[in-house]
Amino acid sequence: MNIFDRYISVYNGVKDTKGATCTLRAFLTSEKHKETIIRLRPLPKKERDEIKRTLPQGCISGIFHPTRKADNIQQHTGLICIDIDKQDNPTIEDWEELKRELSKLPQVAYISLSVSGNGVFLIIPLRWPDYHKQQFEELKRDFATMGIKIDTSCGDVSRMRCISYDPQPYMNDEAIAYEKYHVEPLPIRNYQYGTSETADRVARCVEELERTGTDITGNYETWVEVGFALSSLGEAGREFFHRVSSQNPNYKQSECDRKFDELMRNGRRTDIGTFFFICKQYGITWK
């Protein structure tokens, strides 16, 4: 489906909680509020913001039901909208020039002046919409290397975008998906070979998993089984659990630590053989 023919949730102002749906194209190209937007641009920020709250709002990243919040997403559009505002980028003076420069990026599908006229917003297709936040984090880093700070609230999948008007927006329905996503840094490795023969074998498997980028955690249940098996090594298994879990794009260091603490307290002990068995299903062995 064409990027601009995808459906999004739209709301009649910020007080509308239920909303409706329409195509992205219809939302972006509507000129129904053109005159209102032109009139509000020179107004003081407080007055401008009051009017903005009454204008249509679109959730570029998805369809939400029954109300707009991240937990109620029914379908991700595979798109993310990011804002570049004057207040975060005081050195940017020429927004049209910025639009021309950013249009050179093959991942950018749309660029338009923001409703205030003092900024732009971009729409970018995502390769991994299930990892919306992680892809946003990497986008934030990529734009920072260009000297551009993007609005951090854009990482919220349910964030609303106010309708705007730009006489010359940039549109590219053949934009390619943004591939990168952020993975939290691993804890410092401190495993020393020779601690035990079993731990050495686990270490060899983990090193091969890392070398090949193999994720053996699969679903939540398998992740827990891997954790139970590694917890049979006691605290020595914590580092291995982090390293194995980090092969999944959804890895979070704090969450992994909490889960390992929980498994250690549980009292159940799965034999380490379970870990080796799961590894073997992916062609990974300590040998």
* DSSP, total strands: 10
Rg value: 24 Å
- Broad structural category: alpha+beta
Mean pLDDT: 91
**How are the strands of the largest sheet arranged?**
2-1-3-9
> Into how many domains do the coordinates divide?
2
Shape assignment: elongated
Share of β-strand residues: 5-15%
Low-confidence stretches: none
Q: In whole angstroms, how far apart are the ends?
A: 47 Å
Count the helices. How many? 10
- Biggest pleated-sheet summary: 4 strands, antiparallel
Order of helices and strands: EEHHHEEEEHEEHEEHHHHH
- The proportion of residues forming helix, as a percent range, comes to 25-40%
Could you please describe the fold and organization of this structure?
This protein is of the alpha+beta class and 287 residues long. The protein folds into 2 domains: 3-171, no CATH class; 197-281, no CATH class. It has 10 helices and 10 strands. It has helices spanning 24-29, 34-40, 45-52, 95-102, 132-145, 197-212, 220-231, 236-245, 253-266, 273-281; strands at 7-11, 20-23, 57-59, 62-64, 73-76, 79-85, 110-113, 119-125, 161-162, 170-171. The longest helix is centred in the C-terminal third of the chain and has 16 residues, at 197-212. The protein is elongated and about 75 Å long.
Could you give a short description of this structure?
The protein is an alpha+beta fold and 287 residues long.
Present the secondary structure layout.
Elements: E1 7-11, E2 20-23, H1 24-29, H2 34-40, H3 45-52, E3 57-59, E4 62-64, E5 73-76, E6 79-85, H4 95-102, E7 110-113, E8 119-125, H5 132-145, E9 161-162, E10 170-171, H6 197-212, H7 220-231, H8 236-245, H9 253-266, H10 273-281
Antiparallel strand pairs: 1-2, 1-3, 3-9, 4-5, 6-8, 7-8, 7-10
